[in-house]
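ok so for the tutorial part 2 we go from a plain amino acid sequence to predicted structure tokens. step 1 is just haveing the sequence, like this:
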Amino acid sequence: MIKIYVDADACPVKNEVERVATRHNLETYMVCDGGIRPSLNPLIQLVVVNQGADAADDWIADNIEKSDICVTNDIPLAGRCLKKGAFALKPNGKSFTDDNIGLALATRGIMEKIRESGEITGGPPPFSKADRSKFLDQMEMIVIKAKKS
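step 2 — the prediction. this is what the tokens look like for a chain of 149 residues:
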């Protein structure tokens, strides 16, 4: 059975994930280091990990399996999930794939070096209603793909 794993600490689409999970009867893990209210939905499990760099990412990467779905903005976590044959989706609806993860990791590394040099870079654009809508559309398509694989 397909499972959904959400890197939940700063995820803006937790409610949307829950709606999709309920519609498809999919067990879902909201993984965080605390501060998130547990859902009353029996399909949604709250997993609180020890605080620390990458603790939630490590838990997800250790538990995700082929054809499962990860919702995250974290590029290295997405790469780890893809290596296990899972799907990875950003909250704005953009999918991480084997074809684009290398470029995403390289770009992340370049931007990190620019920030470390003291140059101020703009962050990502604000999350919008259009992003939420794209996420729901993509999530539905990924669930259907995952069920077929």
